[in-house]
Amino acid sequence: MSNFNYINEILHIDNVSALDIEKKCKTPVYVYSESRLINNFKKLEDALTSKLGENHPKLIAYSVKANSNIAVINVLNKLNSGADVVSSGELKRAIKAGIQSERIVFSGVGKTADELFLALQSNVLQFNLESIEELEKLSEIAVENNMMAPIAFRINPDIDAGGHEKIATGGSNTKFGIPFSQALESYNYAKTLSGIKIVGIDIHIGSQITELDPFELAFNKVVLLYNTLITAGHNIENIDLGGGIGVSYDKTISTFSLDEYASLVKKKFGSIDCKLIFEPGRYIAADAGILLTKVIRNKESYDNCFIVVDAAMNDILRPALYDAKHEVISVKEINKNKEFVDYQIVGPICETGDILNKKVYLNSIKEGDLLAIKHAGAYGAVMSSQYNSRDLIPEIIVANNNINIIRKRITIEDFLSYESIPE
Fold first, then answer.
1. Is there a contact between 44 and 61 (Cβ–Cβ < 8 Å)?
2. What pTM did the predictor assign?
């Protein structure tokens, strides 16, 4: 996380002190680095271009579900990013952030009739369909409105991938996609329906994938299906390879390089004359953000040293939901010559599972000290809730050394204004 460094023993985000951020915006607060978002996007784009060449059509469609703040999406829009959306809300966010509809793909297993109609009206690039039933509903809506719907089927290749069973989406026991064995039959049927235009193939096998083997297995099936569909007379303009590129949340996780990934893409698809679509989310946003939190108090119980902080599982759900390990660091740089304490970092939520990190070695920490939870830019704020009637916390982006509040704190008073007691 080169955009998060210690300067004069204090953590800085792109040369802005975490202490200055805390003065401007009460903790807990999400803090993003604009330059890190830009660098991550460009690294992927450059790797793909270097292997595929400048002229091979491609679209990096940022996965909005990773971090849906419109300021974040707008940063990527300025780089000509597209968007992968999974709801009408995400579609509206992407458009509000400036992304043109022809750079938006609409994914998701449960699109409603209203959402399908909105996306049709918006002229999205492609619908990634997950079932025959969804295909038939989209055809019905398109015909009623005298429109054509560009579609791809999301193919489930029955390949296990992803860092946790709850983020593996390519196996036969998941709700996602059309079974590979039914793909040709599904495309043949789609060709008979009015209002439907076949334009592509879609695949997404999971998230936080740290080895290339699952990608290669999945890509092999995509190539096989592409050749089968072309032989059967189908028009395939786009091949959507999904996302899933893993990140190193801590020193125990090693990942493949972007050059290795791009080389694999080149090997499998370099000779195929289709637009290649990529849907990175975590890779772009995860290490571009931290969750800044303040120590409420220390607590010792039996042999445990707890640090109770003002952030909690409702603010960052991943540790409780996925057993995810986010490194926690002190805003004040640690002194390696001082004694270290083995802490558990916990939040104030009334749940035993409200543990943000079970083992953190820090110098002695006291009330009022600031900590930073790393790699919190993806699947952090987007998964937050008001559980225990807590505020939804702010989001900040540091851009050109300026502190910009891009989501204000949403307080209990705000939530209460939407509730009423019947007379």
1. no
2. 0.94
Q: Which residues pair with 200 in a beta bridge?
A: 152, 238
- Quote the pLDDT of residue 250: 83
Can you give the pLDDT at residue 176? 80
Which residue ranges make up each domain of the chain? 4-33+286-416, 34-285
3-state secondary structure 54-105: CCCCEEEEEEHHHCCCHHHHHHHHCCCCEEEECCHHHHHHHHHCCCCHHHEE
34-285 folds as TIM Barrel (3.20.20)
Confidence band, pLDDT 50/70/90 cuts, at residue 2: confident
Alpha helices in 105-212 (DSSP H): 113-122, 132-144, 183-191
Residues taking part in catalysis? 350
Question: Span 169-193, mean pLDDT?
Answer: 84
Buried residues in 111-134 as b, exposed as e (16+ CB within 10 A): beeebbbbbbebebbbbbbbbeeb
Residues 398-416 as b or e (16 or more Cβ within 10 Å = b) = bbeeebeebbeeeeeeeee
Distances 129 to 95, 179, 349 between C-alpha atoms, Å: 21, 12, 39
Residues 131 and 151 sit within 8 Å (Cβ to Cβ): no
Distances (CA, A) of 117 to 63, 126, 221, 335: 21, 13, 31, 58
Indicate the pLDDT class of residue 166, thresholds 50, 70 and 90.
very low
Please say whether the beta carbons of 27 and 286 come within 8 A. Answer: no
3-state secondary structure of 249: coil
Could you read off the pLDDT of 63-76 as tens digits, one per residue?
999 999 999 999 99
Q: Which CATH class is domain 4-33+286-416?
A: mainly beta
